Amino acid sequence: MQPIRTIRTTRKVSKAERDLIRLAKELNMEPTTERVQSKIFDLDSKDFVQVLKTGQFAPVENANEALARVNHDSVKFLEIVNAGLRDHYRTQLAANAEIPWKVEDEEGNLSDFSGTPISEDKGKQLNVNVLNMAKLLFKYDEADGIADVEEKRKAKRESKRKALDMLLSNPAVVESLKA
Questions:
Q1: Is 109 in contact with 135 (CB distance < 8 Å)?
Q2: Closest by Cα among 7, 9, 23 to 91
Q3: Which of 112, 114, 121 lies closest to 176 in space, CA to CA?
């Protein structure tokens, strides 16, 4: 298998494309740059700030290398393997069309989901459109002038709710989301 070449572009790369590139590099056993993000409250700016750390991750080629990475701690090794297997199982479970999605009520009782879900891509498109409409028509950006953080969040949520209601009141929008 030949290694994947890095192609430089001026176009912004989406998260899905970054994930595919990272997966291809891992399959080729190439080091990847990993990002860890966190949202923290900064006392200096008195606001929440998105911070991140980056580092190089080099995949291992066999179990012995992986065990050496955790200083031959077999308990830690099994924790890591089981975490990966759990993630893999969850991905398979989510993709399994034979197992129906459920909803949970306040008491913890499960029942079959009977709504009409939209794809993840359509959901992302809808969120972008809701935000754009909230900014354009429902004074979303004006909420930035509100000093109280909770009131600001409430105003922005309300702008987005109005935008979502407006979009979903249009049958053509609803039909395009189903497709």
A1: no
A2: 23
A3: 121
Asked if 77 and 66 touch (Cβ cutoff 8 Å), the reply is yes
Task: Give the distance from CA 141 to its chain's centroid.
Answer: 24
pTM above 0.70, yes or no: no
The count of structural domains within the chain is: 2
| Percent of the chain scoring above 90 in pLDDT | 42
Runs of H (alpha helix) within the chain: 15-27, 63-69, 74-95, 120-137, 149-168, 171-178
Per-residue pLDDT of 127-169, as tens digits, reads: 999 999 999 999 888 888 888 888 888 999 999 999 999 999 9
- The helix-helix angle for 120-137 and 149-168 (nearest 10°) equals 110
Return d(Cα 23, Cα 14) in angstroms, integer: 14
Establish if 70 belongs to a structural domain.
Answer: no
Q: Which two tokens stand for residue 164?
A: 């979502």
Range of the domain at 15: 11-59
